[in-house]
């Protein structure tokens, strides 16, 4: 299965200072959402989401796939795990948070059809 990175998710304990840091460091434009300091950046050709409330800060890469359900089954067949299941967000598409054997976190993303 071929893929490209389609989305980056940044999880922080406190989103506001992390958002200000990346906006200043990379010159990314920030688009706030909600009231917790989270939102998203336009990071070159892809978006980078930011949320707070993570006990262990992290950055996850989301890989674009044409068929998320099939990709999730392939992760499981190869010994990986899926957190929860497939989620969907209007304007973004479907996604699943995954773990490779050994616990490495990554995501799969199927954009909305255009």
Detail the topology: elements first, then pairings.
Elements (H helix, E strand, L loop, with lengths): L4 E7 L3 H12 L2 E4 L6 E5 L2 E6 L6 E7 L3 H10 L3 E9 L3 E7 L5 E7 L3
Parallel strand pairs: 1-4, 5-8
Antiparallel strand pairs: 1-5, 2-3, 3-4, 6-7, 7-8
Describe the model.
There is one protein chain. It contains two helices and eight strands, in the order E-H-E-E-E-E-H-E-E-E. The chain has helices at 15-26, 68-77; strands spanning 5-11, 29-32, 39-43, 46-51, 58-64, 81-89, 93-99, 105-111. It has an eight-stranded mixed β-sheet with strand order 2-3-4-1-5-8-7-6. The model has no long low-confidence stretch (mean pLDDT 91). It starts with a strand and ends with a strand. By secondary structure, it is α+β, with helices and mostly antiparallel strands. It is globular and about 40 Å long. 19% of the residues lie in helices and 46% in strands. It has two domains: 9-59; 65-114, 2,3-Dihydroxybiphenyl 1,2-Dioxygenase, domain 1, CATH 3.10.180.
Sheet bearing the most strands, described? Answer: 8 strands, mixed
The multimeric state of the shown protein is single chain
**Helical residues, percent:** 10-25%
**How many independent structural domains?**
2
According to DSSP, the number of beta strands is 8
The radius of gyration is 14 Å
Q: What is the number of helices?
A: 2
Taking pLDDT < 50 over at least 5 consecutive residues as the criterion, the unreliable ranges are none
Query: What is the structural class?
Result: alpha+beta
Element-level helix/strand string: EHEEEEHEEE
Strand order of the largest sheet: 2-3-4-1-5-8-7-6
State the shape: globular
What value does the average pLDDT take?
A: 91
How far the N terminus sits from the C terminus, by CA atoms, comes to 22 Å
> What portion of the residues fall into strands of 2 or more residues?
over 45%
């Amino acid at each position: 299965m071929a893929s490209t990175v389609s989305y980056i998710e940044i999880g922080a304990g406190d989103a506001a200072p992390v958002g200000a840091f990346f906006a200043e460091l990379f010159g990314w434009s920030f688009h706030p959402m909600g009231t917790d300091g989270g939102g998203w950046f336009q990071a070159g050709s892809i978006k980078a989401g930011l949320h707070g409330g993570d006990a262990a800060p992290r950055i996850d890469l989301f890989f674009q796939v044409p068929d998320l359900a099939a990709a999730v089954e392939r992760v499981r067949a190869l010994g990986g795990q899926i957190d929860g299941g497939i989620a969907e967000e209007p304007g973004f598409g479907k996604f699943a948070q995954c773990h490779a054997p050994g616990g490495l976190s990554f995501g799969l993303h199927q954009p909305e059809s255009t």
